[in-house]
Design goal:
2 copies of one chain form a homodimer. The first copy, chain A, is mainly alpha-helical. Chain A has a single domain, classed as Winged helix-like DNA-binding domain superfamily/Winged helix DNA-binding domain (Arc Repressor Mutant, subunit A, Orthogonal Bundle). The first copy, chain A, is built from 6 helices and 3 strands; from the N terminus they run ααβααββαα. Chain A has a 3-stranded antiparallel beta sheet. In chain A, strand 2 and strand 3 form a beta hairpin. Chain B binds a DNA duplex (30 and 30 nucleotides) through helix 4. Chains A, B: Pfam families: MarR_2. Chains A, B: InterPro entries: HTH_MarR-typ, WH-like_DNA-bd_sf, WH_DNA-bd_sf. Chains A, B: Keywords: DNA-binding, Transcription, Transcription regulation.
Chain lengths: 175, 175
DNA sequence: GACGCTTGGTTAAAGTTTGAAACAAACCTA
DNA sequence: TAGGTTTGTTTCAAACTTTAACCAAGCGTC
């Protein structure tokens, strides 16, 4: 089958998109590293926990919510635990499971740094988009997500790798 | 100053965007690792070189084009050089500079794997977007890029770090 | 109740990224 | 033209990610 190359217009859009995401991810990582002493992914883990009723989540559930691998989460939680922002607790019912729990200190860090984070996102994105563009962004993003999540053709990751996975996500709900 | 949290609409857009980019990055990385034996970033470096008249670019220019740090580029080029896909060459005029040059083998790898890559991008993105949406995506991306590149307020990275630069993500929408 | 499969979580090793510092060549400028 | 600064690149250590095991607890079954 002959390749359906991208049209010039699609190419321009693709390049612009890649450039923007690279710059954005970097800016956010830098800001959070600066102000919160952790990369965006770690901030996202704390944020995810903060949204839970008891600020706790089983490791696997947390990994799914944050869309990262379990091993990556293990590493991150170990670090955050050392920092005193999270603590682990064994599950009573299922002795295999363990919870990650956001400590008061972790919550405090989140509350202290959320404003700066939001400000960064605003300054980079939403302060420059019209109302319609915000809608367009959501719609386009949703289309892409659907295309990728609906895709069961992808050879199912051996075991650790979740089918969708990764990089961070996670909002500071609370705030 | 009181924090200007994201509106519900902005939050939705932000989360959708983050989810999409996470999934997309992952899908592309997996596909390229599979078919070309390298992550997207490395493929991008080869692709950038292939567009040059002589398939060569000074390290710094390449870093800027690919929007990555110079140290990251050094590492990547070292690896690609080992693989025989790129070779270095010293610059005559400015003896501090060095070029990265795409070898014939590198070009061959690119040509062999480009169709699969394009197909992945199409399947995930462009096959599902209308003509207007492609335009919107470019426009929105450009706005973000301008916001981040034009920003000279950011405390200029000591040295290595470019003012804009890269990687992961995930914010706390305002909530 | 032993065998086998699945699930929750961690670990180890190899690969990659970061951030700061080191170097050397090129560029002022007095 | 000596001395100081900027520019182009690399290096190094520490932090992080990935992949592929690995272990132990639950689950089902014969």
């Amino acid at each position: 089958m002959t390749t359906r190359w991208l049209t010039p217009k699609e190419q321009r859009a693709w390049r612009a998109y890649m450039a923007a995401t690279n710059l954005l991810e970097d800016a956010i990582d830098r800001q959070l590293q600066q102000d919160a002493g952790m990369p965006h992914l770690y901030y996202g883990i704390l944020a995810n926990l903060s949204e839970e009723p008891e600020r706790k989540l089983r490791m696997t559930d947390l990994a799914q919510k944050a869309k990262i691998t379990r091993s990556r989460l293990t590493y991150a939680v170990t670090r955050l635990e050392k920092d005193g922002l999270i603590r682990r607790e064994d599950c009573q019912w299922d002795k295999r499971s363990s919870f990650a729990i956001l400590t008061d200190e972790g919550m405090a860090v989140l509350e202290r740094t959320a404003p700066g984070h939001v400000e960064t996102v605003r300054a980079a994105v939403f302060d420059h988009l019209s109302d319609e563009q915000v809608e367009q962004l959501e719609e386009i993003s949703s289309v892409i997500t659907r295309a990728l999540e609906g895709d069961e053709s992808a050879p199912h990751p051996p075991s650790d790798k979740l089918p969708w996975r990764r990089r961070s996500s996670s909002p500071c709900s609370g705030s």
